[in-house]
Amino acid sequence: MTDDQIAAAVRLLINQYDPEGLLEMGAPEDEYDPEVGDLAALVCGEEEITADAVGSIWNRWFDDVSDWCVRQPEQVSEVAAGLERLRGQLRRSDPAS
């Protein structure tokens, strides 16, 4: 899986939730790409992907003004689980692993 494919999969996951409601308001599909880049780095990294890790990235990008992590903690957990599943797919497809 290429970096672009990983980013596209993460974008799809985040856009399904539209945590800030920006897509619903008409924002473009790539609205969350800065956050997607950091979340994709989690997928490629070695650290466990937790709801706290996802929330930390999210809050950093939104300068702690987002209430998504407080308002929808189950969604944050679902995103973390989705990123872990993506990591598993990535590792299974990597011939070096």
Offer a quick outline of the entry.
With 97 residues, this protein is mainly α.
Describe the 3D structure:
- It is a single chain.
- The chain is mostly helical.
- It has one domain (3-93).
- Helices cover 65% and strands 0% of the residues.
- The protein is built from 5 helices and no strands.
- The protein has helices spanning 3-17, 33-44, 51-61, 68-71, 73-93.
- The longest helix has 21 residues, at 73-93.
- The chain is globular, with a radius of gyration of 13 Å.
- The relative contact order is 0.17.
Helix content: 55-70%
Q: Give the integer mean of the pLDDT values.
A: 92
Largest sheet: none
One letter per element, helices H and strands E, the order comes to HHHHH
**How much of the residues is beta strand, in percent?**
under 5%
- In one word, what is the shape? globular
State the domain count. Answer: 1
* Uncertain regions spanning at least 5 consecutive residues: none
Distance between the termini: 13 Å
Structural class: mainly alpha
Number of helices: 5
Radius of gyration: 13 Å
> How many beta-strand elements?
0
Keywords for this structure?
single chain, 97 residues, mainly alpha, 5 helices, 65% helix, globular
